[in-house]
């Protein structure tokens, strides 16, 4: 049975998986803040009422697990707070592995090790394409951390901890821009850069990844006040160029950038702002299909709305 780690928070809607054999059952995982990591089976041969079933859950991924990612047979998750105990305000990072003979019920993922996320509000983690680095974003702690990964997938001590600062509050409502809020720390397809959308400061920070112990900030994209950049994803065009799709929470836009990174020096240009939806919708996560031809959006707000016409086509 194939396995897929779905990158979802507790309040998001499940994205449809894409099994290679349309009739093969597929396992995937969901980070449910109130419970832990759910193991879910999807059987496309069943009807809509019976195709999804919970086969187990893991409670050893900290307090309020918020995000999942995977590399090879390892699964990594980040928790919001209370690591390593209730007196701590830091989040935690957890390396997990599927059991060779998984059984139904609790803790069907084996915990390999865990470390501090170095900040309150652990909200996102990502593995570099070569599997040697793990990143973490802490939205309430205004920090980003990077960790080496061993060949066995063990998380090492943080090699870098970056603190983001906000000189003055932004115009975002509901205290959404009163401090720096790094909402994601994602590696680009080349693995040469770490991209951090910061909702609070209306910036996207880009770090050059030269090695696990040599990561420096080289660029930041400054967006209009009240934009609230939240998540990015990439489509690799060739060895030196990628397209970056940037979703912003506060103005509900998707911006498309070209990233050229010859000689380890990123150059960027904005292609267009491709889509708008009026507030108060929340638009947190861009998703590319496996064919990388269509980008879709995964909302945390489950209110049903009629989509607007796009301003331009991508």
TrEMBL record:
Residues 1-15 form the signal peptide. Residues 261-314 are annotated as: Disordered. The keyword Signal applies. Gene3D superfamilies: YVTN repeat-like/Quinoprotein amine dehydrogenase (2.130.10.10). One of its GO terms (molecular function) is 6-phosphogluconolactonase activity. Belongs to the cycloisomerase 2 family. This is 6-phosphogluconolactonase.
């Amino acid at each position: 049975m194939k396995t897929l780690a779905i990158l979802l928070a507790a309040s998001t809607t499940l994205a449809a998986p894409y099994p290679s054999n349309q009739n093969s059952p597929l396992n995937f995982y969901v980070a449910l803040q109130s419970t832990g990591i759910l193991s879910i089976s999807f059987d496309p041969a069943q009807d809509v009422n019976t195709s999804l079933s919970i086969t187990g859950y893991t409670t050893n991924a900290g307090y309020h697990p918020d995000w999942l990612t995977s590399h090879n047979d390892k699964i990594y998750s980040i928790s919001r707070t209370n690591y390593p105990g209730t007196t701590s305000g830091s989040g935690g990072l957890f390396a997990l592995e599927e059991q060779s003979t998984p059984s139904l019920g609790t803790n069907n993922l084996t915990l390999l090790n865990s470390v501090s996320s170095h900040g309150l509000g652990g909200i996102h983690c990502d593995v570099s394409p070569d599997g040697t680095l793990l990143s973490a974003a802490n939205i309430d702690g205004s920090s980003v951390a990077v960790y080496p990964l061993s060949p066995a997938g063990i998380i090492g001590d943080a090699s870098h901890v970056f603190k983001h600062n906000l000189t003055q509050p932004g115009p975002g409502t509901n205290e959404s821009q009163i401090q720096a809020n790094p909402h994601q720390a994602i590696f680009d397809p080349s693995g040469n850069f770490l991209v951090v959308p910061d909702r609070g400061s209306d910036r996207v920070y880009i770090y050059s990844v030269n090695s696990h112990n040599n990561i420096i900030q080289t660029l930041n994209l400054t967006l209009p006040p009240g934009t609230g950049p939240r998540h990015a994803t990439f489509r690799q065009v060739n060895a030196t160029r990628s397209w970056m799709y940037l979703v912003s929470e506060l103005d509900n836009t998707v911006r498309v950038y070209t990233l050229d990174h010859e000689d380890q020096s990123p150059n960027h240009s904005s292609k267009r702002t491709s889509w708008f939806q009026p507030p108060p919708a929340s638009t947190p996560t861009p998703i590319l299909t496996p064919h990388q031809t269509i980008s879709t959006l995964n909302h945390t707000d489950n209110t049903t709305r009629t989509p607007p016409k796009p301003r331009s086509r991508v």
